[in-house]
Design goal:
The chain is an all-alpha fold. It has twelve helices and no strands. This is ABC transporter permease.
């Protein structure tokens, strides 16, 4: 019975754009809880990228590998058009406009981090002999393959809102940085503050009252989709492991050679 539930059962419902309208219309059941959860989740999503460009500006090294920037750039660029279509087709519902604005902001963050990658981090990522033009070309190729592949995945999932796909962005942002820092072997380009944000992202994304479950319970509730919560436990474990890895790395100097203060 347990085996069948885990490996042969699928959510009976699906995620629809109407779910957002139903859950996020003032007066809906649990409206304030859902709205608060959505806003906190969005703020944490902005923070993971704010820390990225603050760290790379201050310490000349960022917290994420290059492919994460190109992946998120492609995903969020796709999201602009998904939410724009939803906004036009669902009577200009406010959340879809918020989604468009949020995705534009995220893409702007990602473009900025990619620019810093090809300038400040080019030698670290590509080595001594790669030109700026070649580094930019490599980034464009990565964004292209991610964009077409993620659109294929979205279509195959019949994910009209990107809500199913979005959760994988949460898994990646919480699990990959610690592995990256472990390989890199330094605290430069990362911080305790970012570690705390990543743990909070995992908790907010996968607790029983997460944004996904509040908006589309027929697809994301524990009873309908236990794998979602198994993934959440593993994701939280990776986020906490990232804290452990960071704690083991050599201490940062308080000041960099150019006199800039490092970020705690």
């Amino acid at each position: 019975m347990v085996f069948d539930t885990l490996f042969n059962a699928y959510p009976q419902g699906d995620v629809t754009l109407q779910d957002f309208v139903t859950a996020l219309t003032p007066g809906a059941p649990n409206f304030m809880l859902t709205l608060t959860t959505v806003l906190i989740t969005f703020v944490l999503g902005f923070l993971v990228y704010i820390y990225s460009f603050v760290l790379v500006d201050r310490e000349k090294s960022g917290p994420y590998p290059l492919w994460m920037h190109t992946f998120y750039c492609a995903a969020d660029f796709m999201g602009i058009w998904v939410f724009l279509a939803a906004y036009q087709n669902y009577h200009h519902f406010w959340f879809f406009l918020l989604g468009v604005i949020g995705e534009i902001v995220w893409v702007s963050f990602e473009f900025y981090c990619l620019w810093r990658a090809v300038t400040y981090e080019r030698k670290e990522i590509w080595g001594d002999k790669v030109t700026l033009k070649k580094a930019i070309f490599d980034c464009c190729l990565q964004v292209l393959i991610f964009f077409v592949s993620l659109n294929l995945l979205r279509v195959e999932l019949h994910d009209t809102s990107m809500f199913k796909f979005w959760i994988f962005t949460q898994v990646i942002i919480c699990s990959v940085p610690g592995l990256f820092w472990e390989k890199r072997g330094t605290r430069i380009g990362a911080s305790w503050q970012l570690n705390i944000v990543l743990v909070l992202v995992a908790i907010m994304s996968f607790n029983l009252w997460n944004m996904w479950a509040l908006i589309s319970p027929q697809f994301f509730s524990l009873s309908n989709n236990p794998w979602y919560y198994f993934v959440g436990l593993v994701t939280l474990m990776f986020a906490l492991r990232g804290c452990y890895i960071y704690a083991k790395l050599p201490q940062k100097p308080k000041y960099l050679p150019d006199g800039s203060k490092t970020i705690f």
